[in-house]
Amino acid sequence: MWYRLKKKYGNTFAKIEDYLSVSKEQLNELSLITDRIDNKKSQMRVISETLKKEAKELTFARALIADKFEKLVTKHIRDLAMPQGKFQIILAKKPEIGPNGVDDAQFYFTANLGQEARLLSKVASGGELSRIALAIKTVLLEKSGVPTMVFDEIDTGVGGVTAQKMAEKIAIIANVRQVLCITHLAQIATFADNHLYIEKVVENNKTSTLVKTLEREERITEIMRMAGGNNISEASRTNAEQLLLMAEKIKDGIN
């Protein structure tokens, strides 16, 4: 037996004792590691329960806000020529809790009475999406600290009375925020405080973009073009002037 010990752990008694001492220290460290692992597992269980509790509270808070938010958005949607439109928020559950909780907020929409709301991205037309986007931005206005809002062709797919109502909504936002609005519709352009005309110009086989601030007479001419194409007449000029005056009157009522 002594021979086997010497062969395996050292050729002297002192070396065997050293090996035994080191082995005991390692065993003790393993025991401590096991204790630490058990302690970490216990901490993880506590953290997991806390996380579930806070995620549940977050879901509850979101449900309350979602209920108010969808009612406000629905109200603005109906102001934009969708009298039966309805906006809904569904809080679906994710498989696991993430940095933002366990909820997956999904937007649902129906344009007609008696029809079940479906996923917004699947059912809304281009014009409907434009109006819903404007309605959402209008609702978020009070909570947003962003000083400038950009509407890039938010009037896509709309015209007539709907475009007029969109213009009035944008004017409300512009009363408290700076708004940059890119539009092809005369009804919206008439509400601008500063009307910029953007044009691409080709010179020497190079394309550049020119931006020009229009004076009042230039605005009238441009609104005539936007409203009626190239059919310029005294009647179209009168119509453009009336559109501008009406927009100014509405803006005065907002201020």
Task: Write a concise keyword list for the protein shown above.
P-loop_NTPase; alpha+beta; two-stranded parallel sheet; Rossmann fold; 255 residues; 7 strands; three-stranded antiparallel sheet; DNA repair
State the end-to-end distance.
102 Å
Major beta-sheet overview: 3 strands, antiparallel
Structural class: alpha+beta
Shape: elongated
- Rg calculated over all Cα atoms: 34 Å
| Secondary-structure element pattern, one letter each | HHEEEHHEHEHEEHH
| CATH class descriptor of the domain at 143-255 | Alpha Beta
The CATH H-level homologous superfamily of the domain at 143-255 = P-loop containing nucleotide triphosphate hydrolases
Question: How much helical structure, as a percent, in the residues?
Answer: 55-70%
**Strand sequence of the main sheet, in spatial order?**
1-2-3
CATH architectural label of the domain at 143-255: 3-Layer(aba) Sandwich
SS field, number of helical segments:
8
